[in-house]
Design a protein that fits this description.
By secondary structure, this protein is an alpha+beta fold. It is built from three helices and nine strands. Among the domains are: about 90 residues, Umud Fragment, subunit A (Ribbon); about 35 residues.
Length: about 210
C-alpha cells in the first residue's frame, strides 16, 4: 500500500512590524522606576550644565598647592562671572596670567590689593610674596564661589580618557542595538528570521517543528 508523503507544514507567517513595536513597548514598560528616576536625574544634570554654560559659570581644577590649605591640588572650583568693579580684597578669583615663553595659564589666587583701573594684586595663600605685576580687569575670569574637594582629579581623568570612553560607549550601544534587532527579527516559535523584501514582509520560509 503506497504511503502518503508527510504534509509540509505551513510557513510561519506573522506581522513583523507590529510585533517589533509590541516588543519595544513591553521593554519600556518593564523598566523599573529607578531607571526612570535615573533618566530624570541625568536630564536634570544635563539641563543644569547647559544653563551654567550659558550663564558663564565655569568649573576650574586646581593643579598646584599655591593656595594650600584653603585649596588643594585636585579640587574643583565653581567660578561665576563678576564685574571687575565688584571684586574686593580677600576674595579668591580666577584670572589669566602670562607665564614665561608667552604662554597663558589660568590661576586661582586671592586678591590682596585693588588698584585703579581696576587692576588686582594676587597672591597664593602658600606663597610668601604676591604674584609679580598686576592683573587687569580684562584678564578676570570670575570669582570662586564653591569648592569641590578632590573632584578635579576625576574630571582630569575623564578629560584624558574622553575619546576612549566615547568609543567604548558607542561600541557597546551598537552591539546592544544589533543584538536587539536580531532577536526582534526572529520568530518566537521557530527562531527563523523574518523576511523583509517585497512580498515577504513578516514571513519566514522555515517550517515549524512538530
Amino acid at each position: 500500500m503506497p504511503t502518503r508523503p508527510p504534509a509540509r507544514r505551513p510557513a510561519c507567517i506573522s506581522t513583523w512590524a507590529p510585533r517589533r513595536r509590541r516588543r519595544w513597548n513591553r521593554l519600556w514598560s518593564r523598566l523599573p522606576a529607578s531607571s526612570w528616576w535615573g533618566l530624570a536625574l541625568l536630564l536634570l544634570v544635563i539641563g543644569l550644565g547647559i544653563g551654567a554654560l550659558l550663564a558663564g559659570v565655569r568649573l576650574v581644577v586646581v593643579q598646584t598647592e599655591s593656595m594650600a590649605p584653603t585649596l588643594r591640588a585636585g579640587d574643583a572650583l565653581l567660578v561665576v562671572p563678576v564685574a571687575p568693579e565688584r571684586v574686593q580684597v580677600g576674595e579668591i578669583v580666577v584670572v589669566r596670567r602670562t607665564v614665561p615663553y608667552g604662554r597663558t595659564t589660568v590661576v586661582a589666587h586671592r586678591v590682596v590689593a585693588v588698584r585703579p583701573g581696576p587692576e588686582f594684586v594676587t597672591q597664593g595663600d602658600a606663597n610668601p610674596q604676591p604674584d609679580p605685576g598686576t592683573v587687569s580687569g580684562r584678564a578676570l575670569i570670575g570669582r570662586v564661589v564653591w569648592r569641590l574637594p578632590g573632584v578635579g582629579r576625576g574630571l582630569l581623568w575623564l578629560q584624558r580618557q574622553s575619546l576612549a570612553l566615547v568609543l567604548l560607549l558607542v561600541g557597546v550601544g551598537l552591539l546592544a542595538l544589533s543584538l536587539t534587532a536580531d532577536r526582534s527579527r526572529r520568530c518566537p516559535r521557530c527562531g527563523a528570521l523574518w523576511s523583509d523584501g517585497p512580498g515577504g514582509e513578516g514571513r519566514s520560509d522555515a517550517p515549524h517543528p512538530a
